[in-house]
Design goal:
Blueprint: H1 4-9, H2 11-16, H3 18-22, E1 32-37, H4 42-60, E2 64-68, H5 69-79, H6 83-93, H7 95-106, H8 114-120, E3 128-132, H9 134-137, H10 143-150, E4 159-167, E5 172-174, E6 178-179, E7 187-188
Parallel strand pairs: 1-4, 1-7, 2-3, 3-4
Antiparallel strand pairs: 4-5, 5-6
Helix pairs in contact: 6-7
Protein name: DUF1788 domain-containing protein
Pfam families: BrxB (PF08747)
């Protein structure tokens, strides 16, 4: 089993390959990849994602756009005037009420899903999409749900989801504890 540093070092050479960006050899599947890692390496992975984006731009001219799901949720709620209301609601009615209200406000899984729309509006000129903040956005956004819904808008660019947990090619296990629904359409980015 490779350690986290070796696996992180394999990301940039992998995504710099022209075949990776063209999604060749994927059997007509959309190029969705998962980089899974032990949750205790979250801060290391965050730092390395920033480095990879900068190095990919300077060394290969690649435009990688990172979408942090948690930051997107906060930005959408704030822009709609819901963020402060959510804080007040949580104090009065508890976290469960806020959770349900937030999912409803974001229109998750509906045709007009605000998170999906947010990402769709920012894809122009993107070579590769990085999806982060998976653990921070849970349980509001579930990893398999966001991937299923992104299939309809992220078609030209490969997408890499940085996942704090285990992905075995079929099952997503957030934090190595919480089993998400099965997801078979993504490929492991680098071997474990």
């Amino acid at each position: 089993m490779k350690n986290i540093y070796v696996r992180l070092d394999e990301i940039l050479p992998k995504i710099a390959e022209p075949e990776f960006r063209l999604n060749k050899g994927l059997g007509n599947e959309i190029g969705f990849y998962i980089f899974d890692y032990q949750p205790e390496y979250e801060l290391l992975v965050r730092d390395r994602v920033k480095f990879i984006k900068e190095k990919a731009k300077s060394a290969y001219g690649l435009n990688i756009v990172e979408f942090d799901l948690y930051d997107i949720v906060l930005e959408i709620l704030d822009s709609k005037g819901y963020l402060k209301k959510n804080f007040a609601m949580e104090q009065k009615k508890g976290s469960k009420q806020v959770f349900n209200a937030t999912k409803k406000a974001l229109r998750l899984t509906l045709d007009n899903d605000l998170v999906i729309s947010y990402i769709a509006e920012r894809l122009d000129g993107t070579d590769i999409v990085f999806l982060t903040g998976i653990g921070k956005a849970w349980p509001i956004i579930r990893s398999h749900t966001i991937l299923n819904n992104l299939h309809r808008i992220v078609e030209k660019q490969p997408l890499v989801m940085f996942f704090p947990g285990k992905y075995d090619g079929g099952s997503l296990m957030l934090f190595n504890v919480l089993k998400d629904d099965n997801y078979y359409r993504a490929f492991p980015l680098v071997d474990g």
